[in-house]
Amino acid sequence: MKNVIIPTDFSIKSLKLIHAAVDRFGEATLNITLVHGLTPDHSISGLLMLTKRLDVSKLMTEEFNAACEVIRNKYGTTIHRLKIECYYGTSRSYMRSFLEARQTDAIILPADYEFKKAVKASTDIVPELVKAGYPVFYETLRTGGLQVAEDASLSELLHI
Amino acid sequence: MQPQRIRTQLKITLLYTGLTAATILLLSVLVYFFAERMSSQDFYKRLDIRAVMVAQQNFPQSAGTSDLIKDLRNEYLEKLPNEKEYFKVITPGTGSRNIMDSVKLPESFYRDIFNNQQAVYHKGDVYYAGILHRQNGKSIIVVVSARNEYIKRQLTNLRSILLTGFIGSTLLIFALGWFFSKQVFLPIRKMTQKVRNINTENLHLRLNTGKKNDEVSDLALTFNNMLDRLETSFESQNNFVSNASHELSTPLTSIIGEAELALQKERSPERYQEAMNIILKEAERLKAIIQSLLSLAQTGFDGKRQIQETLRADELLLMAKKSVDRIYPDNKIRIDYTLLPEDDEKLKIKGNDHLLVLALSNIMLNACKYSENKEVVVAIAASNTRLFLIIKDQGIGIPEQELRYIYDPFFRASNTGEVKGYGIGLPLARNIIRLHDGELVVSSIVNQGTEVQISFPIDKSQPF
After folding, report:
1. What region, left, alpha or beta, does residue B372 occupy, with left being phi > 0 and alpha being psi -120 to 50 degrees?
2. CB-based contact, A153 to chain B, within 8 Å
3. How far apart (Å, rounded) are the C-alpha atoms in residues B433 and B295?
4. Which of B127, B155, B183 is the last residue of a domain?
5. Which domain holds residue B79?
6. Fewer Cβ close by (within 10 Å): the C or N end of chain A?
7. Considering only CB atoms, which chain B residues are within 8 Å of A65?
């Protein structure tokens, strides 16, 4: 059992990193955690309602969920669990304990893709992930192919 | 229909009136009942006081009080109508039956007196109140009776007020209800009038939906949507006939022209052979058009009679590819299994295999045809509830503003150029996919490629 951390920006394209993770660690079963970074909201309403978190739930569109399910079904025996988490930290030590709590074995990062800012409060957690001291693997997404449909198409998961 | 409407209106009014009248009636009965109880209780209290006084007057506790009480009574207590007083000394051994000789009172009255020291009773509008008085070890029953004329007058008055009120308000409610239901049905009546004016000549007319977001405007909106669909199908039927006759006459014209040319004079056998070949090719084209028209008609109208069986989507894809191979032996269709689910239960869909293969092969054929035989990728994927098929080519694409016409029979995009086709394949495929509760999404960029995404609900009913 390996615990793999993969950052996500809720685009279907970024889910391709899961392919890469399975290619690399395919012999073991995997617990994959998709992490999205958010700046914590310090206002009273933000603390009470967790409004930014709600913003993110809007980002998890029907297509994104369908794409997650497609991947789950594709790697039914390899992927033991696929879950999505939000990361609210701002310091390196917080990141380290976040990763420690999830018993992280590896972090997968894209070599040829820049994560987009999904919502205004999104943060780029890639630098912190790199510095956290856990094994980091860079994978190519092979996104060179031609994009015909809009971003929310399942075909983005294909290697074309 | 006029009478029908009136009947509904009357029904609603009557129902409304009935409900309200019943409520008022219940309220009136309650008011009457409590008023009666209140006033008889009041009267019994007055009789009680008199009974006590009678007892004290005739059997005083101490000498001298008798006259005092008599004076008090005469001075301050009004004589009630038909007021009578009775008393009797009880000796041990007296039963509880007909103790008083001069007045007939029920047995329960005496029993109440013995048990509670007091009792009340009324017969018609004559009221009786009795007490048990004790003096020097003697027990005396004292009963005072009087006719309650106040209560009679008051209650009659109340009864007539309530009755008049009930009848009056029922009439008022009926009138209001009639007006109210008329108001309710007004928009519907208007709508009926408007709909009656719409016929095949002016299908473009629409109902006024208004700005309100209520049930009536909802109904109007639904009507308008239905009219939209009607108009579209009407128009596409009209276009269909003209397009179909055009498509059918083109090969016929070439057949006739070629035959006439060949028959004009004697020709060499090679020339005849050439002519016959052209005629054969055109006749085959004609046959293909007619066949696809037939299947289009079948899928369009006969949908409910198709046999539904559980199928595996990957097998369907292979079958469709095979039928494409027959037409384009050197096609470059690649079936991409990168997203294929591990669990083949997720590949099951319900449907008719012939129709689905026809639909898939039509879409795959289009992909090959309009991409100068570049690579076509066909992928299969499954979420937990839906099965996805993605067919992606690198062909000429479809201009954006023409995307919405691609499902019209015989419509061909402006950039198809030399590529032969009849414009039936995609409408046919869409009809079939719709029959299977599927969805068809086409996205395209001109000169870059087209992506068709089909999704079907996964059949979870029974295992293979």
Report:
1. left
2. yes
3. 13
4. B155
5. 2-155
6. N
7. 383
Each residue of B222-280: pLDDT tens digit? 888 888 778 777 776 776 676 677 778 878 888 998 899 888 888 888 988 988 998 99
Residues forming a β-bridge with B310? B350
Q: Looking at the structure, do residues B273 and B243 belong to the same domain, yes or no?
A: yes
Q: Give the pLDDT confidence of A55-113 residue by residue, as tens digits.
A: 777 788 888 888 999 998 888 888 888 989 888 888 888 999 999 999 999 999 998 88
Given a contact cutoff of 8 angstroms between Cβ atoms, the answer to whether B388 and B453 are in contact is yes
The share of chain B scoring above pLDDT 70, in percent, equals 93
Q: In this structure, is residue B67 part of a structural domain? A: yes
Complex ipTM more than 0.90, yes or no: no
CB of B191 within 8 A of CB of B49?
no
Q: Which domains does chain A have, with CATH numbers?
A: 2-157 (3.40.50.620)
How many domains is chain B built from?
A: 3
The residue of chain B nearest to residue A65, with distances taken between CA atoms, is: B383
Give the list of residues 6+ apart from residue B411 with CB closer than 8 angstroms, or none: B402, B405, B423
The partner residue sitting opposite A73, judged by closest CB among B336, B343, B377, is B343
Q: Is B16 helix (H, G, I), strand (E, B) or coil?
A: helix
Which helix (H) or strand (E) segment holds residue A108: the answer is strand A106-110
Among chain B residues, the shortest Cα distance to A77 is held by B342
My answer on whether B313 and B268 are in the same domain is no
- Each residue's pLDDT tens digit, B78-129: 888 888 888 888 877 666 666 777 778 888 888 888 888 888 888 888 889 9
Query: Which of B341, B390, B397 comes nearest A74 by C-beta?
Result: B341
> How far is CA A104 from each of CA A1, A5, A83, B60, rounded to the nearest angstrom?
11, 7, 14, 107
Nearest to B449 among A67, A146, A158 (CB): A146
Which residue stretches of chain A are H helix?
16-25, 44-49, 51-59, 62-74, 92-101, 126-131
Q: Identify the domain boundary among B283, B299, B315.
A: B299
